[in-house]
Amino acid sequence: PHHCEICYAPAMTTLHALHFAVLLLSSSPAQAASGGTPDVSTAEDHETTGRVIVAANADIVRAFLADPTRVASVDSGPAQVEVEDEGSCKLIRTIVTHPLASIRYRSRQCPNSIGFRTELVESTDLTAFHSEWAVRAIQGGTELIYKVRTIPSIAVPQFLVDRQTRASVTQLLERLKVS
Q: What is the spatial distance between Cα 142 and Cα 126, in angstroms, rounded to a whole number?
C-alpha cells in the first residue's frame, strides 16, 4: 500500500466550508474553452462541475489522476491521507482536522471509461460524497471535467459548502493547469 502521512486530499476541497469561507470564483465558458480560468458551476442537487483545458497529452493526465496523492499534492487543503491499492481501484482514508470539527471518511477511487470516479465507502461525518474526473483528448491538449458532490452530516449550511466547493474546484483546476 502507498501511504502519505500529511498530504492534500483532492476530495477534501469540498469540505473546506468548515472554514466558513465565502469566496466565490466563477468564469465564463469561453474562458474555459480557451484554456483560461476554469468554468465552475453548482447544480440544484449540489453537484459542482468544473471544466478546464490543460496543455498536456490525455494519457499523461490520466496517469497523473490515477494517483490520489499526486493529485493531492496540487490541492490547497491540508489533510491526512492514506491510499491502498484495491485491485484496479484505490481505497482512500482521509482525515481533515479543523478547530471546529474533524472530518473522517473512506472512499474508493476506480477507473472508468472517461476517467475516474470516487464514491463514499464510510463516514459518520458525511451523508453523501462522490467525485468524478473526465479526461478528453482535444486538439492541443486535454479537457478536464471534475464533478464533486459533498453533503456533510454536521451542522454546516449547504449553501456554504456549495460556495466553498466552487472556489476550491476553481483553485484545484487552476493548479492542475500549471502542474
A: 32
